[in-house]
Every structure is written in structure tokens, then in C-alpha cells.
Design a protein that fits this description.
By secondary structure, the chain is of the alpha/beta class. The protein is built from 33 helices and twelve strands. Strand 11 and strand 12 form a beta hairpin. Helix 1 runs parallel beside helix 5 and helix 31 runs antiparallel to helix 32. The protein starts with a helix and ends with a helix. It binds adenosine monophosphate (AMP), manganese (II) ion (MN) and zinc ion. Zinc ion (ZN) binds next to strand 6. Adenosine monophosphate binds next to strand 6.
Length: about 900
Amino acid sequence: MPQPPKQNNPTQPEESTGPEMDVNAQTSSEPIDLISFTTEAYRNVVAATRNCNAFPQGAARSLYLSYPGYARMLEEQSQRVLGLINKVLKTENISGDIKRRQGDEQLEMVQECNDILFERITTNLDIISGLRRGNPHMVVETQVDVQSTSRPATSTITKETPRAGSWNRYSTAPGTPSRSMVSARLFTAQNIMRPQMQFKVPVDNSAQNPFKPRLKEKPNSLKPLALLPEYDDAGNVVSFLHPYEFELLKFEPPKEQLQKQKPLLPAPPAQTELMLVDNVETLKQALEELRQAPQIAIDVEHHSYRTFMGITCLVQMSTRTKDYIFDTLTLREDMHILNLVLTDPKVLKILHGGDLDIEWLQRDLSLYIVNMFDTHRAAKALNMARLSLAFLLKHYLDLDVDKSLQLADWRMRPLPQKLIDYARQDTHYLIYVYERLTNDLLQAEQGQPQALRMVYQMSTEVCKKRYTKPHIGPDSHLDLVRKTKRSFDNRQLCALRGIFLWRDATARQEDESYGYVLPNHMMLQIAESLPREMQGILACCNPIPPLVRQQLHTLHQIVLRAREQPLVKPLLEASNITGSVLLQTTNKDYNSKLNCPHDFSHQEETRDDLPTLLGRNGSGKLQRPSKPKLEAPSVPLVAPTLSLFKRQTASTQEEQLRWLCARKESQTLRMPYKRYMAILPLMQQQKIEQTAKENNELLKRRLCPAEPAPVNIKLESTTKVDEDPIYKLPLKEQLKRKHQPTAEQPSLAKRNKNEEKPSASVSGPKPKIKSEPMPAIDQTPNGEDSDDDAVIEVPIEKSATENPTPALSRRQQKRQEKNKRFKAKARMQAQSSNKPVQLPTNTATAQNFDYKNVDFRQFQGGAKRAQSTEIKSQMRGKSRHNNRNNKQFNKLFTFSKINKERKK
Ligand code: AMP
Ligand code: MN
Ligand code: ZN
């Protein structure tokens, strides 16, 4: 019984915490009851340890245990202790019953629990010390060149997010070497306090409750404030209507905004007043000033890594004469008073790519905008080469702005001067840009405001956007798999689903982003490798996310559960995956932020960097290049003459003629029914021959019994040999045919993969393949009685772009002979046992030839040449695996061709 170590164990770590907590208690001025509590706890722990050590050990223990009373007592107490430990484990969500585990595992569980507790203690201590520190943060700054990527999955991307909206994720400044590489400065600080901790209204990350606007007053309203819920079929509230929906619906841009503007270049930031707004007094003052302004430029800075839904950290505004920076972390609950100007339809608000800004403003600050001009939309309407703000600033002001601080940690407080300067430039010039864009839009339409109206309309649509919480469906994890293009079996998918759900729940609970809890690539790695040990999970992560370390046990359980799943059909084929995904995605939430099928933001903005022949005129508009006159090619097109075996002679005129005919023939479209009709007589004839042959053989076998057939012959490969008619002939006739060259059908052996004219010679010489004796099957007989033979061979011959080698056909012949014998035997057996042997009669031709040697793509090639889309689609429509269909089709196709030729 491993009791003593077990009992000792939980006490040991606590011993180590003792002094630590003591120190903390002493240095802090916490209430006295905490100190007395820890002192008391410490005393108890020491006493428990002493008592444990007092238990008899070694030989003495064995001796004591021989007393049933002692053994019983010990057992009872250890069960009690284990029960207590179990309760502690449960509080930390460690699943499993410690009483049922072996010693090692028990130890592991306890260690796991301790880890979690320690982690929490350290985090809490950090937070407390961060709170108390009060001195400026240690700013950490690193320059990295990163491949431009899309935003983390947590961020609030919507389908309508403009591709090059406000992101400016490409360094657009001239002289930047590569556009796909972004020079990002990681500008953050150590020990940034979580701003969520100080929010007066805690964030609600739950998936069940939809986002509810927190607007209390509605200035500039045409309809009184009403937060109208929307319900789903089950009667649950799924969302709330936009508070300013009606006002936005009624909005018409004022006349002045549809007229030509007088662009006024702003003074440089250094000579412009800046107001840092971080308390209610200055906020009120700013509001009064802003009410006087006819236009306000607005931008928002946001943080999305250490939060689930995101936090609006900063709002910048600019009038013509003044810049404002609002600390929205401290003014989170007060900013809504700015609705007085923001929803005023007479005051123009200018944003660049405001899709997300609109959502962030309403989510965190209850701010809404009526009368907005989106400079990104305007640039798009003008068909400008790039749509980023940096480009517009370069274009209209010849300003090279540095956007590398875009991803700075905007939670930093006090805000470093660098970030203030950076944030300012996002709005400082925006009014001027708006004026220039307005004029350009009017100019583009010869003074008519249609395009301008369109921009206002689109901007108003942006204002109507409603924030919705991130949401995952039951199959969201499959989207991830599809994106990575890996194939997962059911165990891996099960693990992925489990981890995905765990990540979602953890992120919501801990108010962290998915990227912080467990980045996608690590999650996929864990699900793919399904580590048996906890250590294996950690090995999939580098660096190990803190929450993964903390909840390693939970993750391990998910993986173990997935490993226990019986392995079912692996989803190896791409078609399979897409098929299943297609089916499953039908019930996913298309409103989800995670569902961005048209989100191309991770791709490059195609219009941005493609070299074109287009030049620019003075106004920045694209000009068509003068068209260079392209000469029609005077040289006739010649098919490539790639051939494996050199042709011995130039093609004769006759041959060419034949080729032409064959080509023409292949170009005529024949409907399936006609094809069917065309082969009917042949089929009948073949049927008759088939029966005759069978009877003949039967007779032969009866006279002299068949040799034992090889055991390992596969039934499906039993080809009803197409030379059967030959073989049933006397040997003399067979030989005769063998050496009879055919005018109509060249031999199979002649088929050449890359032959320029596949159907080639009518009377032309055959390529010599010395090593291969010409088997009878390859020779197409001339006589009428062997028409079917000819017919079968020709198609492959005709459009042969690929052919079985002669060696193959010899092997094939051998096999056919074997099969013939085998089949005959089978037939004999069937007769004796009265069991019908399935010998297909009308599919005889399909079986006469070993289609395994035929590349069916050749027909597609022929169809391509003939540009017959019908044939092409027919061929494509067939599954590759559905060979039988292909055979049928080939047969029909072939016969029609031959028939025509013979008529000719
Ligand atoms: P901007 O409008 O360019 O100032 O960007 C506003 C906010 O969007 C920034 O504060 C960032 O939080 C976020 N953001 C911009 N670009 C990216 C990006 N490439 N990836 C992630 N977040 C971004
Ligand atoms: Mn922006
Ligand atoms: Zn910005």
C-alpha cells in the first residue's frame, strides 16, 4: 500500500508555498484575517506532515499491518484522505477518480493540481504587483519581418470586410522591397495590466447570450430608443436590431457634401493642437468642441490578443484644426455622450475602412455613426490601384507614413509618445483626403454626384453593421482541417473537435483569444499526432501556451478519449472530405465571425502589385496602352512530332486523307441513341458468335476435359478473349490470319503513346518492334466474319495517345488463354452443379478486351480535339472508378466510329 508517500505528497508542495505566501502576506498590507488564515494553514500543514512521518515505516509497518485493527484503521484513513484530495482535484477540473488510480498516476494527478494552483497564485501575484507598481511599463520593442497574414481568428472579421480596408497590412511605402513581407514592430510592454479587470460592466463572453446594445440614450433620434430583439425559430433571442437603423434608413447626405470641395491642406501634426482625453471633464470639453466641427475624422485602435471579443483601446478624432485621442479604456462607460455628434446627420464623419471600427465602437462604447464617408469605399469607387490609407496619403499628400506600429499593444498605459504620434496620423489628414476624393468622384462623373452618392450609400450600409459575438458551430473544426488540406481520420477529427470545443470554452471563460489559448497550428498538431503522453501534447506546442500547461490534464483526457475511438474509414480522399464537409457545412452559422468563406484577406490584394502595361495619367487614372498590332500567325500549326518509335516513311497522301476523315468523324457529334442503333447489328452478330463459340467449346471440353485451371486467377479479369473467333478456327486459318496485314485496322502493337497521328497508316508500314512477336490478337483480320475483332481494337488504335505495350498484349493473350480454359471449366462445373454461371452476353465486347491496358483519357483527348463538349462532359462526368461505365461508353463510341468508316 503506497499510503505514506501519498499522504505526504499533498503536503509537500504546500510546505513550499508556505514561505512564499508568508512573504507576500508580510510585504502586503492585506487585511489581518488573510495573514492569520495563512499562518493557521501553515501550522496545520506542518502538523500533518509531522504526523505522517510518525507512522511506522519499513519492517515496523509490516508488523503493525498484521494487526487487523490497525490495517483497517489505516485503510479507512487513507480512503478518507484520498476522498479529500479528490475533492480538491475536482475544483481544478481534473477528471478521473484518484482512488481508482495506481500510485504513479495518483502522484501525477496531484502534481497536475499543484501546477494549476501555483500557476494561478503566480498570475494573481503578478497582477497584484502590476497593479501596485504604478511606474511606467518596460517597453519591449522588436522589429520583425513577417509574412502578411490575416487577422487572428478571434478578431471580428466579417465577410464584408474590405480586403485592403484599414489594414494597410502591406507596406505600401515606395522603396519597400517586398509587399508580402510586412515590417511589423512588436511594440508591447511587460506586465500590462488586463484592462478587463477594471471594466465597470464585466464582459459577457458567453455564447448563449447575444450581444445586446448598452445604449441608454438616443440623441438625434427620429424614432425613440428601443432595443428590439430578433428571435430564432425556437423563440430564443438571437440578436438585437440596430438602435439607429431607422435613422440610417432615412439618411440623405446633405447638399454641401455632394458638392465640389475646397481642399485645405492641414498643418503638420507638430503645429496642431492635440488633446489627450482620459477623464470625463476633458471628454465633455472635447464634445463641446466637436459639436462645432462640420467634419470629424475618426479612427479606432483595438486589441485582440489577451481578450476574447476584443477591446477598443483608443479612439482618435480630428477636426480641421485639432486632434483628439480618447483613452477608451478609462472612458469606456462615458464615451457614449459623443453620440451627440456621431449620430448627428449634419456632421460628417470620415473613416477609412470603417467596417470593424463601427462594430468596435458600438460593442465597447455604445457609439453609433450617422452620416459617414468611408475613404476606402471612395478609393474603390475610383478604381484606385491600392486602397490603403497609406496609399491615399502618398497619393494625395505625397506622405510616406509608417504603419509598422499598427499591431502595437494598444493597452499600454500611459501611452508612449511613439504610439500617440502614430495614432494621430491615422486621422490627421483624413478630412483633406475626403475632400480630394469627393472632387475626384465628381470629376469622374463630369460633375454628377452619382458615384459620390453611391459611396455615401455604401458607407451608410457600413454604419448599419451590428456587432455579433464570435460563434462556433458543431463543425467549425472541419473548416480548419479543410484549410490545412491535411486529411484526418475519425480519431484525429474527434480529438480536434474536442480540443476545439475546449479552446472555445476556455477562451470565453478566461477572456483570452483563441490564438492565446491555443493557436490553430498547435491544435492541429496535437489532433494529428494524438500523443499518448501528456508530454507529447506539450511537445506539439512551442512555446507552450500557459493555458495549455495549466489544463494539460483536460487536454490529455480529450486526446485519450479520441484514441479510444474505433478507427473507421479514413477520410483520405479529397472528394470524401469535401463531400462530407459540404454536407456538414449546411447547418453552420454563416453569420459567425469564424465563417469567412470569402475572406481573402490572407491573400495578397491582387490589384496591388501586378505589373501591368497600363500607365497613369495626371489624375492618377489608369490609361490604356496603345495596342501593339499582333500579326496573325502565318505559319500553319503543326502537331508535335514526338514519337517513341520513329516512323519509317513519311505519311502517304492516303494516310493523310484517312487521318483527315477520322478527324472529321471524331468531330461530328453523335447522340447516344444513334450510337446505340449503329452498334445494334454488330452486337447481335457478336451474340450469335458468342453462343456458337460457347457451344463449340463446350463440345470440345466434353470430348477432352480441360486442364486444371490456375487457382489464383481472378474472376474479374476473365476476359472473354476477343480472338476467340480466331481460336475456334482451325490452326491453319489462325496462322493465315496472323500473317495477313489489315488495310483497315493497324495493329495494336503499333499504337504509340505520342504518335502524331494516332490512327495513322491505312496501308503505311507498321513500326517494327523486333523483340515482340506479333500475337494473333494484335492482328486484325480482314474477313467479314471477324468484324467484331476489328471493331474492338480500333478505338484504342484510333485515338491512341497511349497504348499497351506489345509485351503487355502478349501477356494479355496468355492470360486470355488461361482465362478461357478457366471459364470453360467453370462452365462445366456449373453445368454439373446446375448453377448458372454468369457469363455476360451483351457485354461481351467490353470483356473481350482487357481494358486495364487502355488509357481512357485518350478518348477525352479525342473529344478535346473535336471540341465536343458533350463527349467531354460525359467522360468527365464518369467517376474514374466507374470503369464499367467507361467501358460501355467506349464501346458505343467506338462502334459508331467504325461503322461510319466502314460505310465510307
Ligand atoms: P487601423 O485602422 O489601421 O489603425 O487599425 C485598427 C486596428 O486594427 C489596429 O489597432 C489593430 O488592432 C487592428 N489591425 C490592423 N491591422 C491588423 C492586422 N494586419 N492584423 C491584426 N490586426 C490588425
Ligand atoms: Mn482604422
Ligand atoms: Zn488606426
